[in-house]
Amino acid sequence: MYERLLIWIDDHIYQISENFDYVINRQDSIVEIFLEKKTSNYMSLISGAYYVSRSVEDFRFIEIDDVNELQEIITKLSSDSLERFTRMFSVKRFDIWYLYFWDFHLLNKADKIEESFYTKKGMISKLDNRRTYSRDLTQKQLEKERKDEQFRLSWSIYDDLELLYRLKRTSNSLRTYLYSSRMERLILKALSKDK
């Protein structure tokens, strides 16, 4: 299973990185879409400077076709039958343990994976989960909401970039562990005898 996880990460890390690059470069536009959704009088408050494309579907986020495969791998690794093995294996490498301990609960739900990797489905889901105001806002309230949304989006991107970093580190650790050279295995064996 860990080998499948390694292959999945290696096959998709570049696509995920491209989505992050895309969302970072379009933060202002995304914030405006979020604001339009949650503010009933948004169109009457904005100036021409903020008017952008009004649909997440218009953005070119990359869809990751086999998110369900990652979910399946994580679900199997955290299943009752493999949990003991997964824990024992994960404890040997800090990067793998960190992903197991902090991120497996997030990565066993396809919608959360989509949101964390900023796919089109994930962005639509983030937009749908936004709360809306039934009352009208003033210009000052809209500016405050804009700053708050920018902060939340930046924080979300930062948090999800950390997940991407942990995935890459896990990939490196898994590669070293699963495909170590004969000399590396000999050194590890000698070091384990000293303990």
UniProtKB/TrEMBL annotation:
Specify the superkingdom: Bacteria
Indicate what this protein is called per its UniProt record. Answer: Uncharacterized protein
Please report the organism this UniProt entry assigns to the protein.
Answer: Streptococcus ruminantium
